[in-house]
Specification:
mainly alpha, globular, 72 residues
Amino acid sequence: MNELKERLAALGLSAEMTDQVITTVADFVKTKVPESYHPMIDDVLAGNKPDFGGILGSLGSLGALTGLFGKK
């Protein structure tokens, strides 16, 4: 998380702005993935390593990630 904040600060954003950007992006990502992934996103933002075991057990729901970053 600190690395992301440092990269945003390098763009000239204040600490408050970096926090707002991170929150905005996280909220956006949460609208694009199944709700069961939200705790993992929160863990990453808290600086914890997410538990990928739950993801591996639900590979079928990865179709929800299709189009997250737009069409190619």
